[in-house]
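Hi X.,

You mentioned you wanted examples for the new student's onboarding notes, showing what a folding record looks like when two proteins sit in one file. Here is a clean example. The first protein comes first, with its sequence line followed by its structure tokens.
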Amino acid sequence: MTRIGTVTLVALLLLAPLARAADDAAAGVAWSGLSPQQQQTLGGFAAGWDKLPPARQQALARGAQRWQQMSPEQRDSARTRFQTWQQLPEQRRELIRNRIEQFRALTPEQQAAVRDNFRAFRQLPPEQRQLLRQQWRNATQAERQNMLQKQRARRAQRAMQAPPPAARRP
């Protein structure tokens, strides 16, 4: 066997397990491979399960597993959120999906800042939240940028004035 043939054979033997793992991940989840509880939860998908893309099968299987681990209160809450989601117009759902993608593209620090701002906004009285929404809607792009810069400056100033983390905890 030539040197090139030997190198090719060795490469194929070394890469075979990786290819097998990729095939397993791309194969999806067989309906028979689901637990009885998962099958019950996903019963509406049974007839077309084999036609679903593997990634969708895996996501549904994980979701059914999470569903089984939820308390009855958590399930009720999830049902309500899902029904609310289904009632939204498709255009609104697409906007929400885009915003989720934008959020996921942020750095962890930026995500934390967004969460902090949301918590602070939710703690405002309803009248003040409404006023801020109206101001934002009526603002030009330049005015919005100015609002955001002022907010960042206030946040940075508060951070500078805050006691060190060790001093905050008794």
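Then the second protein repeats the pattern, sequence line and then tokens:
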Amino acid sequence: MDRVSYILNTIGNQVTKWVVRVLACLIGGMTATVIMAIISRFVIKIPIPWTEEVSRYLMVWTAFIAGSLGLKRGVHVGIVFVVERAPRNTRRWISLITKLSVLFFFAVVIVEGFYMSMFVSTQLSPVLRISMAWVYSSLPVGGILFSFYTVQSIVEDLKHFLTR
């Protein structure tokens, strides 16, 4: 179990580095697009039509990717008051069952997100005229990241279970 944990942590560290870089680009692009929209609309008085659409799509991608990073770092809201009132041994089981449920949910998100991306692949966005599959593919990509970080957390929990 230690070897699996080591391998997952090594891969996870590299994945996290790339996730942070991609997030920086997405947030930077979104910020630049919104600033362009504000300047063009209120200063120059000639709005750029595609800025709203680009910033919206970047926000969708940012939400899914940043959410996975939040899950890895443990900053998502949980049902702490229920878990804290449970006995110590029960807490570990509640945590494991919760993480397995989360993993199942994200497996559904990956599969359904893939099907939805394929379903809308012929639909074009109103202004940019790009395939909506690019936007909807944030679902399976985010789901894969969420699932990876959840598996990593489950392996850590199992490692602690087996050593105690």
